[in-house]
TrEMBL record:
<dbReference type="Pfam" id="PF22784">
    <property type="entry name" value="PTP-SAK"/>
</dbReference>
<dbReference type="GO" id="GO:0016887">
    <property type="term" value="F:ATP hydrolysis activity"/>
</dbReference>
<feature type="domain" description="Tyrosine specific protein phosphatases">
    <location>
        <begin position="351"/>
        <end position="416"/>
    </location>
</feature>
<dbReference type="InterPro" id="IPR000387">
    <property type="entry name" value="Tyr_Pase_dom"/>
</dbReference>
<dbReference type="InterPro" id="IPR003439">
    <property type="entry name" value="ABC_transporter-like_ATP-bd"/>
</dbReference>
<dbReference type="InterPro" id="IPR016130">
    <property type="entry name" value="Tyr_Pase_AS"/>
</dbReference>
<feature type="domain" description="ABC transporter">
    <location>
        <begin position="6"/>
        <end position="239"/>
    </location>
</feature>
<dbReference type="InterPro" id="IPR057023">
    <property type="entry name" value="PTP-SAK"/>
</dbReference>
<dbReference type="InterPro" id="IPR027417">
    <property type="entry name" value="P-loop_NTPase"/>
</dbReference>
<dbReference type="GO" id="GO:0005524">
    <property type="term" value="F:ATP binding"/>
</dbReference>
<dbReference type="Pfam" id="PF00005">
    <property type="entry name" value="ABC_tran"/>
</dbReference>
<dbReference type="InterPro" id="IPR003595">
    <property type="entry name" value="Tyr_Pase_cat"/>
</dbReference>
<keyword id="KW-0378">Hydrolase</keyword>
<dbReference type="InterPro" id="IPR029021">
    <property type="entry name" value="Prot-tyrosine_phosphatase-like"/>
</dbReference>
<protein>
    <submittedName>
        <fullName>Atypical dual specificity phosphatase</fullName>
    </submittedName>
</protein>
<dbReference type="GO" id="GO:0016791">
    <property type="term" value="F:phosphatase activity"/>
</dbReference>
Length: 427
């Protein structure tokens, strides 16, 4: 197994009663770039998020099967990585400070880390495209340079496996060539799994291709063979049209009765399975976010589902409080802290409400924020909580909540508030 970094066997991932991904067996080659390709919503991002445990932050998620990480041999292998498998998610960016400061954010010794960074950059030809920006504020840098900074931050950590989810999404066309050059230079240095919808980009950088559609692994092949001689009809259709989906089911008329295999049931029956709550744990079992209870279902049923998840305190961020009427919230305490849609609160008021909520947290109670859609105001308050009570920098707090849900924190006004709160608004 020296040439295999990661093995996935019998993997099933689902939400509620629906299975969304099935992988019988997949071996990821060491120090190669493996691209996950397939139509939109085929299961590619589900796989990479599962590898770092992000799907488990959704209460209705379930999974079974095995994932085996085969660590590289050698004295320096994995010595710096706090997480052996790391993810740079979709839409990732930097927010403040210089590019150098952002790259070194996870490193304990600036002098030693600076020397390591300089040595690392010198080994990549593509670094010439952004070396001149190292000591500039990231607000002056292109999105491609943000992504390069995040990549080199991860490389300094020396993970066993690096996951890149659509690394060129929203990058300017003028920057695509050098970004692809940078990704190509990862070959032979690090085990990389890259999600991409762009077949031309995959052809330029990937050693191996894994084709996923309809939540199923269909084909694995060296990149050149996949594009020149795909083995499956679905892969050939995908290369021609960009879309290919397996038949939803095989009818009993198509096969002999003894060959009919009924799908296996979900291995667990998670709480809130039948409720659309938009719920995510940001700190598992302690801190979470969701959309407004009663938005898509009945309020009483939604609150009962939330209570079943172990939520003790529900913070309402909408302009008006929840209209409980005769609804009994059960054991949930509801706190109202109104914020206008797409806007940010007064910093002093935010400081006070977080101080009050800290009392509840210190008592061991679990805390969930919600606004209407469960994204903008909810993401803002989740990030501020992480700054105030987990000691995170504002940059890392935003990155953390956006790993959980890329749509958390919806407006630039809200981003600016979190950044300012991290500077002078901490209780």
């Amino acid at each position: 197994m020296q040439d295999v970094a990661l093995e996935i066997e019998g993997l099933r991932v689902g939400y509620g009663h629906a299975e969304v991904l099935h992988v019988d067996y997949l071996a990821i080659r060491r120090n190669a770039v493996t691209a996950l390709v397939g139509p939109v919503a085929a299961g590619k991002s589900t796989l990479v998020r599962h590898l770092v445990g992000l799907d488990a932050l959704v209460p209705s998620s379930w999974s079974d099967g095995s994932i085996r990480l085969h660590r590289a041999a050698g004295p320096s292998a994995g010595t710096h990585a706090s997480e052996p498998i790391q993810l740079i998610p979709q839409k990732a960016r930097l927010y403040k400070r210089t590019l150098r400061e952002n790259i070194l954010a996870n490193q304990p010794n600036d002098e030693v880390a600076n020397a390591r960074l300089e040595q690392l950059l010198a080994g990549f030809q593509a670094s010439r495209h952004f070396m001149h920006c190292l000591d500039r504020d990231v607000g002056e840098c292109s999105l491609a340079i943000h992504r390069a900074g995040l990549l080199f931050r991860a490389l300094l950590d020396q993970p066993e496996v690096l996951l890149l989810d659509e690394p060129l999404s929203d990058v300017a066309m003028a920057d695509e060539d050098w970004m692809l050059e940078l990704l190509y230079e990862l070959r032979g240095r690090l085990t990389v799994i890259m999600v991409s919808h762009n077949k031309n980009q995959v052809r330029r950088v990937a050693d191996w291709v894994v084709f996923i559609t309809g939540g199923m692994l269909v084909e694995v092949a060296p990149a050149d063979r996949f594009f020149e001689q795909p083995a499956s009809e679905l892969a050939r259709e995908f290369l021609l049209s960009g879309s290919a989906w397996p038949a939803s089911r095989i009818t009993h008329a198509d096969v002999a009765e003894e060959d009919v295999v009924e799908p296996e049931p979900a291995p667990h029956a998670p709480p809130a399975t039948d409720r659309e709550l938009g719920f995510r744990w940001v700190i598992p079992g302690r801190l979470g976010g969701m959309h407004q209870p009663g938005l898509f279902g009945d309020l009483e049923g939604d609150l009962a589902a939330v209570e079943a998840l172990g939520v003790d305190v529900l913070v309402t961020l909408t302009e008006a409080p929840l209209k409980l009427g005769d609804v009994d919230p059960g054991g949930i305490d509801i706190v109202w802290f109104p914020i206008d849609d797409m806007q940010a609160p007064d910093v002093e008021a935010c400081r006070r409400v977080l101080a009050d909520l800290d009392v509840e947290v210190q008592r061991g109670r679990n805390l969930v924020f919600h606004c209407r859609g469960g994204l903008g105001r909810t993401g803002l308050m989740l990030a501020c909580f992480l700054i105030a009570h987990q000691g995170m920098s504002p940059e890392l707090a935003i990155e953390h909540v956006r790993k959980v849900n890329p749509n958390y924190i919806q407006s630039q006004t809200q981003v600016n508030f979190v950044m300012a709160f991290g500077q002078d608004g901490t209780p």
